[in-house]
Specification:
The chain contains four helices and ten strands, in the order E-E-E-H-E-H-E-E-E-E-E-H-E-H. It is α+β, with helices and mostly antiparallel strands. Helix 1 runs parallel beside helix 4 and helix 2 packs parallel to helix 3. It is 33% helix and 30% strand. The longest helix has 19 residues.
């Protein structure tokens, strides 16, 4: 590969429901500054940054007086958009990644393809309706929003008795799979597809 251009992005989304600002550096060290107003969601995004080695700043001001749905959905949309922007043409990309992450009794597996085709298959069941202030329904919904704008195919499965562990293991597995997939392949100069384009 020639040169090492910065793979960074700054993305803002402002609607009547939320204001989201995301800054990231794909080639960072995992630094995180996350504030969404939803404690468990902050925790999951911090884990994602730490284990993906993506430097990530997220500032979300959402309509939490209604519920946390728009906050989670829009944050994940903007996070995905920022990754898509930072990847640029995706030339020289490893493209694929997978990870299996245990957390006590929980086990999560995530496989990703950052080849430009958004698709999600998720089997991440929970026992309770929420983890703190975060609805467990929004874990899968957040993954769908992320995949749509990151233009990633994402398969996730998880199991466990503790919902906190299941959710955290899933985000850590997504992080490790993403870390692998978005890394530069030193043996590839062009687009990682036999089609010649993504």
């Amino acid at each position: 590969m020639t040169g090492s251009p910065e793979r960074t992005a700054h993305v803002e989304r402002v609607t009547n429901e939320t204001k989201v600002i995301v800054d990231l550096d794909l080639d960072g060290s995992g630094r995180a500054d996350i504030e969404t107003g939803v404690g468990m969601f902050n925790h999951l995004l911090t884990a994602f940054a730490h284990h993906s080695l993506i430097d990530l700043t997220v500032a979300t001001d959402g309509d939490l007086e209604i519920d946390e749905h728009h906050t989670v959905e829009d944050t994940m949309l903007v996070l995905g958009e920022a990754i898509d922007e930072a990847l640029g043409s995706r030339a020289g990309l490893t493209r694929y990644g997978n990870a299996m992450i245990p957390m006590d009794e929980a086990l999560a597996t995530v496989a990703v393809d950052y080849g430009g085709r958004p698709y999600v298959v998720a089997d991440v069941p929970f026992r309770a309706d929420s983890i703190g202030e975060l609805s467990t329904q929004l874990i899968e919904h957040g993954l769908e929003a992320f995949a749509r704008t990151a233009r990633v195919t994402l398969h996730a499965t998880a199991s466990g008795r503790n919902d906190h562990h299941v959710a955290e293991a899933t985000f850590k597995a997504l992080a490790r799979a993403t870390r692998q997939a978005v890394s530069r392949d030193p043996r590839r100069d062009g687009i990682p597809s036999t089609k010649g384009s993504l």
